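re: ur question from earlier - yeah i can do the single chain one, its not a big deal. heres the input i used so u can compare w yours
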Amino acid sequence: MDAATTGKNTIIFTIGRMNPPTPGHMELIKVMLEANLDLPAGDLGHGRVYIIMSHSKDNVKDPLICDRKRDLLQTKGLIRQMQRTHPALATISVTILCTKDANEYAADCGDRFIISQLCRMIKIETALGHPPTNMEIILGSDRQGAFDKMINPYLSSQRIFFNELGPDGKRLFQTYDLKLFRTEPENKESEKALIQHYIENVDIPIPMEDMSGSLMRALVEYGQKDRFIKLYEPLGLSTEDASELFEELTYELAPKPVQTKKRKVSGGKKKKTKRKSKSTKSKRKQRKSTYKKRSNFTKKNRK
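and the output i got, formated as tokens:
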């Protein structure tokens, strides 16, 4: 079937922090592009995918602002290098939306960060002349299903199918879920132990599925700059740009001094305060005598 007869427009997207973007994130983006490439010939969604990135910023898990992450992926060439390595994916455009981006459709989309940008995606596609009929989210195995309760009700209200199921009751895009499967650490302690293992054993190669944002931040915290740069070289980030990123993360991840209000030091010169001209007692006496005079005057007049 051709595009004129299907009327289907499937939008493939992902949601993530990507702070900083890692080789694992680039694999996720590659799988998104592969999913787009594999859409049926008549699907109007061909050639476009979307990334919604968190705007969160702190010195623990989110050292980079969203615009900087977008800069690394688009301007500094991480996506371009991945497409160069896989020429079949080169014609697919990647639109990155930050959750706090100015939204030209804010009047209709509201200000709920992820939902607002989902709404924006729908409006962009509608403006192109083909409103979305289906939306498919591609996520790493640690995040699969994490956004369903938030996204599904909204897309249902827009009459858009989300994560469509096949006749067998399984997700049509499960093939791409499996491509991103990794054995997740059992808990936070085991994840910390895995990261510590790589930090202490500098000669051990790090598998791509373990190149998480947490590990990349740990390399920075332990000052393993050469190792950090080497992991980014195959992604197309120049040595200069990788070095600059390392220094930026070093600064952003450093604990910042807590600003406290200055306390007033006791023992200094006391401010002079104006003395009241009359004490409270004398004022009361004055009021009583005035009242007596007035009452006596009234009694005399009555006589």
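Residues 3-184 form a domain with the Rossmann fold fold (CATH 3.40.50). not sure if urs matches, ping me
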